Amino acid sequence: MLRARKLSLAGIAVGALALAVSTSVPLAYGHGYTTTPISRAKHCANGTVQNCGAIQWEPQSTEGPKGFPASGPADGLLCSAGLAQFHELDDQRGGAWPATQLTSGASYTFTWHLTAPHSTTDFKYYITKQGWDQNAPLTRAALDLNPFLTVPMNGGRPANDVSHPGTLPNRSGRHMILAVWTINDTANAFYQCSDVNF
């Protein structure tokens, strides 16, 4: 009887500890990836591109410091958001990444799928300069650092699937679009790289 009571009390103590641990875990913040033009992360998740490492299971997790271009991930690590476990996204693979066909200067709707929407500052879209080095990892010097499309959210929470109509810049040949989703009430943003061809 005494032993049973001790075991019962021990069980209650373990249960209380488990409850305390589970309720102290912070809620997940926003996560998401671009679907048009399809990002490298989503190509990996779809299995369109092989040898992607961990990103194939979590294309929504390219989260790094916000403040791009003044701060944020280091040059050469923009597509992986500076996360070592996603370094495959920074490898240009000799131009082997599939590229979405776009028309220079045309209207286009950019879309994201957000697995965990969150209070948002804005979405911004950057593109590489004409003549950028396609064989080197993406850097700020390769990008036009004036976003060609900015969608302010002012702290609002977007839907799980969001669309941003805009106008494509004038470009020819192969380029990269860097989409940045800046979270309003954390120190982070999400970075998605899409290969495109005009």
Automatic annotation (TrEMBL):
Keywords recorded for this protein, A-Z: Secreted, Signal
Keyword Secreted: yes
GO cellular component, one term: extracellular region
Signal peptide bounds: 1-28
Major location category of this protein: secreted
Domain Chitin-binding type-4: 31-196
InterPro entries given in the database record: Cellulose/chitin-bd_N, GlcNAc_Chitin_IntDeg, Ig_E-set
Coiled coil regions, renumbered to chain: none
Key word Repeat present: no
Domain of life the protein comes from: Bacteria
Localization terms from the record: Secreted
Descriptive protein name: Chitin-binding protein
Naturally occurring in which organism (per UniProt): Kribbella capetownensis
